[in-house]
Amino acid sequence: MRFLQTADWHLGRKLHGFDLQAEQEAAFVQIEKIALQENVDGIIIAGDIYDRSMPAEQTVDLANQMLQRLNLTDHLPLYAIAGNHDSASRLATGTPWFSSTNFYLHTQLAEAFEPIELETVQIFLLPYFEPFAAQQYFADDSLLHLDQAMAAVINKIKQQFDPTKKHLLVGHFFAAGSSQTASETRLTVGGLAPVPIDLLTDFDYVALGHLHNKDALQTNKIRYSGSPLKFSLSEVRQQKGVFLLDTETQQTKFYPIKPLHDLHDLQNEFAELTNPSFYQSQPRKDFFGITLTDQKPIPNVLARLREIYPKIVALQRTADYSELFEQSQSTKKITQQNPLQLLDDFYQQVANEQLSAAQIKWAQKALQNIREEAKS
User: Could you say which architecture CATH assigns to the domain 2-256?
Assistant: First the structure.
């Protein structure tokens, strides 16, 4: 059987204040197209459909439209789980009738022990859970950490194995390390503690969500699909897309997704960034993280750059302007100066202009409040 593997849609996510709905809709269209062209037997969504546990009404409508289109219009079976960003209770709304349309959405730990039986494959949908949920389910207070809880969970899942079928696990967690390596310091990634990889070796394939990089884990049997979009500057150089899984051959094929507006990083001097011969060659409708290499402050730099690059998500500088200020004040006895004068001097160093009357008034009020608090 052939499945499309995706995860971490994070519907409702913003990129440093910029709405990403258009980008998410464009990525969804490509996911749908790949699934239909490849005539897959179903789509796996390994958690984090939403970006937050209390999504906005508009975001819920968007998720419903996407899932209904895949399941009810395209007649594609869906195998989905709740991730750590999702609200299990919100996702679970309507699940009693989902199975009648081959939409399987598991949001509670107990559901992981009820495999979905296909002709040649058993699919185990293991939603994100906290160790406390395992303590309750197994009535075992010794399951204090996720690796301990996961060992109990996997052991129970394996008891449901049909030896005549392939066994596919869908999960949302951080897989790393070995259960044979004990550590007093428990590493976390994205807020989740690691699940030892050797706990997963009895599955024919493990489709994971949580890490946004498809190359986060280099193993043929256990894969992250990664997110369909770049959600931070740390993901600038990651290739986004989905996997196509063939359970008979256990082979996967990666299909890239072309972003509606990509995310880039630029590092250059202000003069070069604002030079038409440079910026006219840039995809200026895309998102940018910019690092200025100038050694002197530039007045109104963000506003001026946004006239050329409207979607600047971050602005950094290689120069430490605080050091420049300290050097310029090296012959002055700073501690003896008036705080407002110090502020004005610093502002002139950074912005190359004096404080306005309104700014001075605000600073005086703030200074007065600080003095009153110090007396009380």
Answer: 4-Layer Sandwich (3.60)
